[in-house]
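subagent[fold] <- orchestrator: predict structure for attached chain, return tokens only, no commentary.
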Amino acid sequence: MAPPARFQEIIDSESKIEPSDWMPEGYRKTLIRQIAQHAHSEVIGMQPEGNWITRAPSLHRKAILMAKVQDEAGHGLYLYSAAETLGVKRNDLQELLHQGKHKYSSIFNYPTLSWADMGTIGWLVDGAAITNQVMLTRCSYGPYSRAMVRICKEESFHQRQGYELLIRLCQGSEEQKAMAQDAIDRWWWPSLMMFGPNDSDSPHTEQSMAWKIKRVTNDDLRQQFVDMTVPQADYLGLRIPDPDLKWNEERGHYDFGPIDWEEFWRVVRGSGPMNRDRVEHKKRAWDEGTWVREAASAHAAKQQRRAA
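subagent[fold] -> orchestrator:
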């Protein structure tokens, strides 16, 4: 059987494409773009939460936040490793990010202004990530789908941690509940933007669906997230900042207002509140860690010589 026919047979049979299998160049490039963006997002996403580790209100909360940030670093490691199976080098992906040629999730270009943001990021941002990523456990590319199994389990735990933090705030003083409401007011719309542009404006969705890299469209995932989240906000006693939000009995879903796509594209193109700071911090950490990478490489080479 010719390689293209074999590739399509694997896709159609719901089996997995493995690194040793033949694949179209477009499939490989799409996966590199998506996995790299995902990995970059995990690593950059450590910054807004790491910002609060030294200011956590208790040792208990500090330990939880440190564990979560460590998890995000691990997710980046899994994903860069998955990308490397496609023939790219991790260092090259880092350089593309530092040069602004690779993107990461726009959500991480917003500042974390209060402790309530730690709960809201866990509830909304990680909740959106789970909604977006569960389907990736069935991605047609084996290394990516297998990495996503563990990542989704850990992200689910992060989401519950964030929601528990907000429950405590909403059970506290009026000032604490107001802080939680302020955080939701700031993070709601950027969270909806995490699913990407509307299907009609998404250049990659149709082909990714055909290759079974993606399984659900941006708009359907966004609707799932809204339907899941609104009752949770009601339980907290907090208001979703959308005057157009209402239950549509005929559709069986919540209707919600228009998203400010001009803001979305402005942030994606580098003009968000924290774009420059996030990338500069990442580049500085990379440069300061050069000696660690060089020492690790030298140690590995020494072990290989000894084994030989």
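orchestrator: received. Logging for downstream: The first strand starts at residue 246 and ends at 248. The mean pLDDT is 95.
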